[in-house]
Design brief:
Layout lengths: L1 E7 L5 E7 L9 H22 L10 H9 L3 H8 L1
Antiparallel strand pairs: 1-2
Length: 82
Amino acid sequence: MIQVNSSINNQSKSKTTVNILFLAGWLKTFERYFADQTKHILDSMLEKLRENPELKFIWAEISYFNLWWENLGTAEKQEIKK
């Protein structure tokens, strides 16, 4: 969590203090969380799209999708674009 506090001192200059708190719940890196918790979901989605081309896919976590997308081959990317 990042907290920003602004105040004005006696000489009319703005003073900003930034506090950074590291939360205990962040035990995995972005990449490790992707590998452990997200990649298999996207891989399964690709299999389902192959089985049923009429399905549509919507994904909100674009950062994880991008990481997955960057590691796909050209043929797989073309399948998803259909």
